[in-house]
């Protein structure tokens, strides 16, 4: 007997058929075009091998699906499970009749709560609520550092609900700043303001988020916003006037630039500062063991006007309008390449490298 469910935070699946091959597809929901996110739990009491086939496009990455026994701790099932980019195989064993599979490495509100619990007793860590979402969830706002400091940094993520790998990067980044503050007092000089889930309803409901009709959260920086979080961010950033504003995203599923970390250029004076931060990050990530560490190379950055990088009403473009000196979107892939497979730990280590680059950048500015 096979039982498949998605009635948990981040769950997303449609069951097409439960024959010898389990046929599935991602639930597009209210996105206006095709996208690729899925996440489901399956229980099978028999010790047997099951083939899973997706019926709506290529949605299984190069390491097979993300895999978890508890829905919290995720790794990759592995290349050996991969039949092709639409299907994979898994053998159930009696010790673990229930397993979770997902498109990439999920990160839900419960992961953020676990991270926050590690540091909530530190005097420099404070939690607030940016606003309430459409479904009356609290949109978390995390402040780290001296709230009265002369300089401020603003981070946001999950304007598109499915873009989960970025949150592991941000965990590593924030963790390094907190650790180093206890030695150097670095966060006396500036305060970090972080909105981890702009589209918290989409994150918890398991939506694609990307291309949500009539427009998604990162096209909502307009005169009459459709969502609660975007005008709240606009008010917050306008008052804060940060020195740095970075909006974190994941690109398309895979291929070419989408397999590499990159910055989204703005076509403004901010590009000079983006290039400086990029050079610092490049210096810190080159010469490392690429089997374990994620590099950054500025050759993959995308210029304003190239391909999809057009002057849309995005979070980063709003920050540019508000004269944030270095406002940018940063893209973190879902998978990486053969010689730099992304894991939750390697993503956190990338975040630590980015924190080191930001430390140097802030000391120069």
TrEMBL record:
UniProt-recorded Gene Ontology molecular function terms: metallocarboxypeptidase activity; zinc ion binding
What are its cofactors?
A: Zn(2+)
Q: What SUPFAM superfamilies does this protein's entry cite? A: Zn-dependent exopeptidases
Give one Pfam family: Peptidase_M14
Q: Where is the Peptidase M14 domain?
A: 123-221
Gene3D superfamilies reported in the protein's UniProt record: 2.60.40.3120, Zn peptidases
- Cite a single GO BP annotation: proteolysis
Q: What is this protein called?
A: Peptidase M14 domain-containing protein
This protein's species is: Paenibacillus ferrarius
């Amino acid at each position: 007997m096979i039982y498949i469910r998605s009635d948990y935070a981040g769950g997303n699946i449609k069951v097409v058929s439960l024959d010898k091959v389990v046929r599935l597809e991602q639930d597009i929901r209210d996105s206006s075009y095709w996208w690729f996110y899925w996440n489901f739990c399956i229980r099978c009491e028999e010790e047997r091998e099951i083939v899973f086939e997706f019926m709506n496009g290529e949605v299984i990455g190069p390491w097979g699906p993300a895999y978890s026994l508890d829905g919290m701790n995720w790794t990759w099932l592995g290349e050996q499970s991969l039949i092709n980019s639409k299907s994979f195989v898994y053998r159930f064993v009696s010790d673990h009749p229930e397993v979770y599979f997902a498109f990439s490495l999920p990160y839900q509100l419960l992961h953020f709560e676990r991270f926050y619990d590690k540091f909530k007793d530190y005097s420099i860590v404070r939690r607030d609520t940016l606003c309430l979402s459409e479904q009356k969830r609290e949109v978390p706002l995390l402040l780290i550092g001296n709230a009265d400091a002369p300089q401020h940094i603003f981070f946001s993520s999950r304007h598109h609900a499915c873009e989960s790998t970025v949150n592991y990067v941000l965990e590593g980044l924030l963790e390094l700043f907190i650790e180093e503050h206890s030695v150097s007092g670095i966060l006396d000089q500036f305060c970090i303001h972080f909105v981890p889930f702009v589209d918290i309803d989409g994150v918890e409901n398991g939506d694609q988020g990307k291309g949500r009709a009539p427009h998604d959260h990162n096209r909502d920086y307009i005169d009459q916003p459709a969502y609660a979080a975007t005008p709240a961010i606009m008010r917050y950033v306008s008052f804060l006037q940060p020195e740095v504003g970075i909006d974190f995203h994941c690109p398309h599923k895979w291929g070419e630039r989408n397999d590499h970390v990159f910055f989204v250029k703005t076509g403004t004076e901010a590009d000079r500062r983006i290039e400086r931060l990029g050079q610092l990050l490049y210096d810190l990530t080159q010469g490392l063991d690429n089997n374990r560490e994620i590099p950054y190379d500025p050759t993959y950055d995308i210029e304003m006007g190239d391909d999809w990088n057009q002057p849309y009403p995005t979070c980063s473009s709003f920050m540019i309008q508000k004269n944030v000196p270095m406002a940018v979107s940063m893209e973190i892939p879902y998978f990486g390449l053969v010689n730099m497979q992304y894991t939750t730990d390697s993503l956190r280590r990338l975040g630590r490298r980015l924190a080191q680059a930001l430390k140097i950048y802030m000391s120069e500015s």
